Amino acid sequence: MQMNTKFKPLENVPLNADPSPRAISICAEKVNVFYGEKQALFDIDLNVGANEVTSLIGPSGCGKSTFLRCMNRMNDTIDTCRVSGKITLDGEDIYSRDIDVVELRARVGMVFQKPNPFPKSIFENVAYGPRIHGLAHTKTDLERIVVTSLQKAGLFEEVKDRLQQPGTSLSGGQQQRLCIARAIAVQPEVILMDEPCSALDPIATAIVEELIDELRQNYTIVIVTHSMQQAARVSQQTAFFHLGNLVETGPTEKIFTTPDDPRTESYITGRIG
Amino acid sequence: MTDSSASNSRQKRDFGLKRRYAAERRFRLFGQAAIGVGLFFLAALLFTVFSKGYTAFGQTSLNLDITFDAQLIDKNNARATDPDVLLTPNYAVLARDALAMKLGLGKLSSKDRKLVDGIISNGTKVQLRDMVMANPAIIGTTQNIWILAEADIDSANKGQIDLSVDEKRRKVSDRQLEWMAQLKADGTLAQRFNFGLFRNGASSRPEMAGLGAAMIGSLYMMLIVLVLALPIGVAASIYLEEFAPKNRFTDIIEVNINNLAAVPSIVFGLLGLALFINFAGLPRSASLVGGLVLTLMTLPTIIIATRAALKAVPPSIRSAALGIGASRMQMVFHHVLPLAAPGVLTGTIIGLAQALGETAPLLLIGMVAFITDAPVTPLDPATALPVQIFMWANEAERAFVERTSGAIIVLLMFLAVMNITAILLRKHFERRW
Ligand SMILES: Nc1ncnc2c1ncn2[C@@H]1O[C@H](COP(=O)(O)OP(=O)(O)OP(=O)(O)O)[C@@H](O)[C@H]1O
Ligand SMILES: [Mg+2]
Fold this sequence. Notes:
The complex is a heterodimer.
Chain A: E1 26-35, E2 38-48, E3 53-57, H1 64-71, E4 81-89, E5 92-93, H2 101-107, E6 108-111, H3 122-132, H4 139-152, H5 156-159, H6 172-185, E7 190-194, H7 202-215, E8 220-224, H8 228-234, E9 237-242, E10 245-251, H9 252-257, H10 262-268
Parallel strand pairs in A: 3-8, 3-9, 6-7, 7-8
Antiparallel strand pairs in A: 1-2, 1-4, 4-5, 9-10
Helix pairs in contact in A: 3-4, 3-6, 4-6
Chain B: H1 3-12, H2 17-53, E1 58-67, H3 70-73, H4 92-102, H5 110-117, H6 124-134, E2 142-148, H7 151-157, H8 174-185, E3 189-193, H9 196-199, H10 212-243, H11 248-261, H12 265-279, H13 287-311, H14 315-323, H15 328-356, H16 360-364, H17 385-393, H18 398-431
The complex binds adenosine-5'-triphosphate and magnesium ion (MG).
């Protein structure tokens, strides 16, 4: 099982350096998504800036997760799902024939709504990605990647004595941070997070939010959230979805203070949702 | 609202708790009763089989000093030039003489001769002939050897013959019983472990009939089923479950696999006869053909079990693997399959156990033959344990009854070994999550 040979992220990144390539931007143009006959997204145009946190907000079922999944083509795994339109990653169309999804998903990491660690050890959870992508050539390299990733996810101190225990034995918040560490370990350029804090208590949420803020230095981040406060706290750009349409997008501050669209205003003040 | 009305309305609310608990108690009782009945029948089955069958593992034998009389075996001393002369003599006489001597009988009357012959197994002459053929140097010497007693003597010795029946209608005469007591007292006649049961092939004489050909046949078939059905079944399930697009075509395949699992096994026998023997020209009665037929039969079971095990793996694990850039293949083999392995194993063992106990399709491909020599390769004629049980169950002689039960015990042992292996393997895989 050899990885796509085009993908050699280590070429210009020294191992002991910060394992994160430069962040890049994403640009969506006229994206339509169908589940079978049913259209879930209508003509979405959205630019996600590099080194920025973009939050997607909107009522349940409006298509936030669907849009997020378009950006690393996880929608490909849903049989009924069809995507049309254009999404470019650093100028490259990710739906073009030349793009290998495996490579794409290594570049665009994802953290899911429900923590989903592998039923393997904590170490294995983080080491799996680097291992299949051949990011480490020696055992020490691999250990270094695991430790750095766990540190960046703010989990290392809590688990350093029990790296061999199953990842599923951690608490929900720890599991979510483990999943973040797992995503970081592959050295992605973009991280997509689907309601990463929905299963967490306020303390764990605060830790993850702090983490997101730090990660912004090196990554482009898109986060789906139901919490207005969270969107306001962590993101620079906010996009409001409603019934499959992108209603409004702009700097977070503006969306939350002087939105252009009445629907946005109703939502953030709690009248639709 | 006043206090009294509040408490009133509280009293009136009926949650039906009594009824609900009663229903639960009833259900528990039903469950326990069902398990009780099941256990009772299991115990009854095991008890009958073991109580009838354990005696088959011992065989009454005679320890005799047999003189290989050169006069009788090779009168003209021609064996150096023509070894075939050793094939023809009546070796039974040697054993008869030895036994008569042991019993202290002089010259035998023809009636006595019949009775003495009736104690010794028919197979003895073959046993002695083979000894002489293998080593002609023993001609002229006296050897102490164990020979088998006749099946009726064996039954009498095990107390399976009703002695209150009139002598004329009994298979063992009073005279023979007297001799038996005498031989038993001086240690000539004794029960020995029945190795022949595991070594010998089919025989019309119960004391010489064994499961050798059947056990090797069954073993070969199990190996063939395991080697073919497991990889094919698992690969097919993985493809259908993880790679194949979900459309009409795969739906039809799925329905058909489910239907195949319900097809009577004898139909697979017909298919095997037409396909493997008539069309492909494979030999009849061979364990290879049996194994192939059983593979066809077992595949649906393994596929259904494996697909169920794969379906039970949470989709979040798949997303997790794909989300960090694992290929589908890596997702399946690194994450999904290890989690499904216990289920796959269980399905495989159930399929194998079914195949091990299958008789009907084997009858159609000629595995019901009278096989006297244990098969060496899977292409040699063989039979199978359940077929052997079936054949012995049809025999009239008393001594075959215990052999039938004994063969069932051997079959159950096979199953037990397979199940224990499965449990150990499952434990092993579960520990690795
Ligand atoms: N796998 C699927 N198959 C069919 N329809 C789907 C599927 N996933 C989502 N949908 C539909 O697409 C629409 C958008 O769903 P999506 O999950 O993107 O919403 P969301 O904004 O993430 O909602 P939430 O905030 O509740 O997570 C919904 O109407 C949903 O029913
Ligand atoms: Mg969602």
